[in-house]
Amino acid sequence: MTVKSNHVTIKGTKDGLIFLLDDQCEFSELLEDLRYKLEHSHQNILTGPIIHVDVKLGMREVTEGQKTELLDTLKQKGNLLIRSIDTPAQSMLEVDQNQLTIHTGMIRSGQVLHHEGNILFLGDVNPGGTLECTGDIFIMGALRGMAHAGVNGNMEAVIAASYLAPTQLRIAEVISRPPDEWENRETSMEFAFLKDGVMQIDKITNIVRIRPDLSSFKGV
Amino acid sequence: MGEAIVVTSGKGGVGKTTTSANIGTALALLGKKVCLVDTDIGLRNLDVVMGLENRIIYDLCDVAEGRCRLNQALVKDKRFEELYMLPAAQTKDKNAVSPEQVRDIILELKKEYEYVIIDCPAGIEQGFKNAIAGADQAIVVTTPEHAAVRDADRIIGLLENSHIKSPKLVVNRIRVNMVKSGDMLDIDGILQVLNIDLIGIVPDDELVIKAANTGEPTVMNPDSRAAIAYRNIARRILGDTVPLMQLDQKKGAFTRFKKFFGMG
């Protein structure tokens, strides 16, 4: 350890310690620094009676694995009792559920695009091609292949396309195929949704009735 | 350094071999030095369509395994001085050669010939990988059928993920009457799905079958509409701007003359 950087700040409060972890540096550096601090600097504090610890990760997004690594490092000192790990980044992610990821291209026969979250796809999905995601699917282009929204079982997910002519549609566990199972067909942009577990097709303008959670425009 | 063009389709029976033979011959007709390569090991046909079956001594596998020199395996065409063919082996299968071996052979051929036309086997397995390994460009052949278009789409996807970037499309065996009556996919519909550049459309022509059976490429017969279509494709490969063939202009000058006088 040549550089003694300051990625870990330890603050004492009335009822314990707060570990403020830097959220900009590499995770490995952070871990290194944490180990160093625990080993060297606060020897006398860290070997005393049981202390409650709050860990603050700042804006850093950590995986479950990284989280366990951090906890394991802290647990090496028997007297540290971790009370909480605070990750504002996590709560930010929750808010971003409504966010769309934009993809462009063309999904040809035999190709599969898998996406975590909601997707706005600019291009066509050809017969034999598959577009699947955990959230909603919006396609600006022709959907001639298969689209699967809410692959993790989200029954609220919808599939919309400028030109909706799929070989098959799937939302969560429900599978539907045209045209015998769908009722009204329009030439305008349409979307598919589940109503009491049955696939329905409607004009895109009616999406607000099905999904009031999407931020909606209200004119004056 | 010449240019290697692979002719592929995914689906079988759409006319890859016929297209390869005719484009190759048409390029030779335009004075280019051309070598046709059959990579359909085990199911070779190009030699039959070219009428060169009985002249084969060595094949692609012999060259790959070093049993002969490349020049020894090349079969010279009956009609053109500067048209050659490298036949595939008939007794082995697709795994008999590797993509690297084919690439090396094509690279060698490109030094000598202006155009190397590679006839690809059907499917997306080893044979396909062998065929595209040495190619600089690709021509995807499809017919106006859903199954053929679907497979062409798959092939285009695979080509786009390979070193070949923008494949060109040939729509083969179009029947004007069926397109008009709505029983056959039309060119626009196919292009909408496949979304690549069209390099030619070839009308369905019985003369093509006749020509293939006699080992005389259709392109030699100027009475055949398919021949004109193939010649146009060859010219487009050379960089000429040739308008697409008007499909319903089937009537000859005489019928048009009759129609003019209200007799048709």
What does this structure look like?
The complex is a heterodimer of chains A (220) and B (264). With 220 residues, chain A is an alpha/beta fold. Chain A folds into two domains: 8-92, Transcription Regulator spoIIAA; 99-210, Pectate Lyase C-like (3 Solenoid), CATH 2.160.20.70. Chain A is 20% helix and 39% strand. Chain A has five helices and 15 strands. Chain A has helices at residues 27-41, 43-46, 64-75, 88-95, 207-210, and strands at 8-13, 16-21, 51-56, 80-86, 100-107, 112-115, 118-125, 130-133, 137-143, 146-149, 159-164, 168-171, 174-176, 190-195, 198-203. In chain A, the strands form three sheets. Chain A has a six-stranded mixed beta sheet, with no helix packed on it. In chain A, β1 (8-13) and β2 form a beta hairpin. In chain A, α1 (27-41) runs parallel beside α3. With 264 residues, chain B is α/β, with parallel strands linked by helices. Chain B has a single domain (3-260), classed as 3-Layer(aba) Sandwich (Rossmann fold), CATH 3.40.50.300. Chain B has helices spanning 16-29, 46-50, 60-64, 70-73, 99-112, 126-133, 146-160, 176-180, 187-194, 206-214, 225-237, 253-260; strands spanning 3-8, 34-38, 75-76, 83-86, 115-119, 137-142, 168-174, 197-203. In chain B, α7 links the parallel β6 (137-142) and β7. The longest helix of chain B is centred in the middle third of the chain and has 15 residues, at 146-160. The chains are: A alpha/beta (220), B alpha/beta (264). The A-B interface holds A 106, 108-111, 124, 126-129, 142, 144 and B 146, 150-151, 153-154, 156-158, 160, 192-193, 195.
